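Follow-up to my post from last week.
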Amino acid sequence: MLTIYSVSDVNRRIKQVIEGDEFLSGIWVRGEISNFTYHTSGHMYFSLKDASARLRCVMFRGNNMRLKFMPADGMLVFAYGAVGVYEKAGDVQLYVEDMMPAGTGSLYLAFLQLRDRLAAEGLLDAARKRPLPRFPSVVGVVTSPTGAAVRDIITVISRRAPGTTILVVPAQVQGDEAPESIVKALDLVNRASALIDVVIVGRGGGSIEDLWAFNDERVARAIAGCKVPVISAVGHETDFTIADFVADRRAPTPSAAAEMAVPDMAETRQAILQLSLRLEAAATAEVRRHRERLERVARSHVFRFPQDITREHRQKLGDAYQRMAAAMAHKLSEKREAFGALAARLDVLSPLGTLARGYGVVRTLPERRVVRSVRSVARGDGVEVVLVDGSLECVVSTVKEGGPDADAGRGRED
Amino acid sequence: MLMQGEDVKIDFEKAMEELEETVSRLEAGELTLEESLEAFERGMSLVRMCRKKLDEAETKIAKLVETKGGELVTEPFRLEEDVG
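User reply:
Got it. Predicted complex:
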């Protein structure tokens, strides 16, 4: 069965195949630049060609900003990148990430071979790159103690971050002895690594031969093995060395390395100011947040009508009081009645009441014992007769026995 | 000399980190009022500490060398003006 594919399908397939190829995903290509266009977008478009073929290339702005030279038609270069496909046009092209002039023949070949070897070992991997400390206190500087580089670095660091300690680790940076000397200096840095936050390794500009120590494999491995993050700073912007690839960061010049190494104090002050402002704002917000929370609670019913909490209790208390008062009153009147009855009975029993009705009490004299029987007195005895309003002292003239009735009957007989 | 560098390093870097952490914690708005006030006071003292460090800052330059006995020492370093 015949299948018809769209152009898009085909281009997508080409893209998949090519971009899935590991070999094409990161290669160095040597060639001569032609049809160079520096687009207003900042991207560079050109071709690399040799005697018999050409390869389309694009170098995006983000990458070409780091170039240390301006490419031009006819220039022989080494370009590094991945081969990919521009799907819309079906163009196969090299997406260039890095590029350098290939001016000096065999030295560059050696350079590339070493670079590839180190890359194969993974020493150039992006994952190996360590971040630089934000506020280094001690910056190590592996360089010549008498060059322009050390002076530039000291000047820049003193200006930007006056609190920094600069530890110069002297090394010979040029000549046959240089690689060994740099390796030795990096060893000192490793031994003092607890004290050093970041190290700058480099030198000022010079001829390619002057800089060659930084393309030495021993130096490259010493940088890769450094316990402290390394900033490479070799020569001028256009110089690229193996040390630059191995280092955690590459600076185009020693001054730039110093700028990378330490923060600008003015910026640090600004950062502290910002933090203190944020701190105050956040603290204010926190206090407000808690106050609002408090007010929310305070606005709740029980706090607005606190009497509600006690109303019921007060009600109960009132009821209890009334019941108590009523009970008391009842009890009181009961008692009062009982008292009245008692008082009345008392009244009845009182001798005073009897006396008031005309009775008298007879008592012996001088003993004042109540006389209950005529037999307890004799004729001639003194007696007292107590009446309601006083008493009479009398002498008994006659004693008669018998009750009052007998007496009365006999009296009538007399 | 070496030890002095160590002290300074720990103080400023740590103080800045703690300050940033404190601000973030406070900004998250999940602290109790007491914790907030504590964080604020701590933050302000860190701000003062960092500023003081910056104000006191003075560049020190030394040379790290190895003695014949294989010991690491620092020596005063002076720029030589006659080279370039």
